[in-house]
Amino acid sequence: MAREQEPITPESRYLDRRTIIRAMGLGVAGISTLSFSGWLRGISTTGAAQFDNSEAFRPAIGDLHKALFPAKRSDKYKIAPRVVTEERIASVFNNFYEFTTLKSGVWQMARNFKVDPWKIEVAGDVEKPFTLDFEDLLKLAPLEERLYRFRCVETWAMQVPWTGYPLAKLIDRCKPLGKAKYIRFITIHDEDRLPGQKDKQWPWPYFEALRLDEARHDLAMVCVGIFGHGLPMQHGAPWRVVTPWKYGYKSPKSIVKIEFTEKRPATFWNQALPREYGFFSNVDPSKPHPRWSQAMERDIGTGRRRATLLYNGYADQVSSLYTGKEI
Asked: Is residue 4 in a domain?
């Protein structure tokens, strides 16, 4: 299926910020003061290793369930006037600290990661705890492709086609009790295969949570594919959650456990750095991060800066969920 594209910037311009800071001879102070545009310009002057990233597109599940892709694209979800970010960029610019903090290095470390078999434990305030296989997850609802905007708290953004179905379908299968108010996601923990988890400054494994009414919103998505095929590992294979009106870290990857709770659970970044990251973490240009503004963002596909949209452009759909005071 043909997709409209704008001229792109080479992958070599999108190296991890820390790499560029080191190359430019900047210390800790430079990390907090160097602007996004500044470090992008720095890449063009410091140079970058060239590599063949054709393997970056490979689904972690291989040819399993290949017949399910590509799913039919829904015309309900629009990103215009923006355009889809090219896969060759979106697949090599990733945050996945379990592997490495180097964005451009994640796909290379993740490309041979085995995700079959994959079990998902369902626990907490449910009628009966149970375990799902990934194959069970695929059968819960028909797959569709949705074009979504994606916004990282670091102020970069992209637009990608996700494949999956509403998270509400999975929640219904889990049969939470009436007292359940939150859904918690726990992701894979495997220090032998995920070297970043040996860094004990972080409370591994990664965990996130949503209020249950947020999770039941139509935009919240169980995602099993991207760009018309199964998820590569750097995108969170074999499945993840996508909540496009929130900052990217609220869309956990490679989930192995779902837990329903009555009380609001802790979340990874809010626990690690509570002054910097809130529980809700909705995209909001009027609420700066303590160390940088959120008023502007840069598209990693075009290199262009633009104004950040409230709720990442999904205000009409989700604003009724909030008072506007949430952090």
From this structure: no
Domain count, the chain: 2
* Same domain flag for 31 and 90: no
Domain range spanning residue 20? 11-50
Phi, psi of 73 (to 5 degrees): -80, 130
Tell me if 103 is assigned to some domain.
yes
Q: What is the pLDDT of residues 15-73, one digit of tens each?
A: 344 433 333 333 333 333 344 444 344 333 333 334 455 678 999 999 999 999 999 99
* Residues 154 and 25 reside in one and the same domain: no
pTM of this structure: 0.86
- Residues 260-296 as b/e (b if ≥16 CB within 10 A, e otherwise) read bbeeebebbbbeeeeeebebbbbbbeebeeeeeebee
Cα–Cα distance, 155 to 163 (Å, whole number): 24
Separation of alpha carbons 235 and 94, rounded Å:
7
Q: Is the dihedral of CA 153, 156, 158, 162 positive or negative?
A: negative
Same-domain check for residues 127 and 16: no
Taking CA atoms, 79 is separated from 5, 76, 302, 312, 327, in Å, by: 13, 10, 15, 11, 25
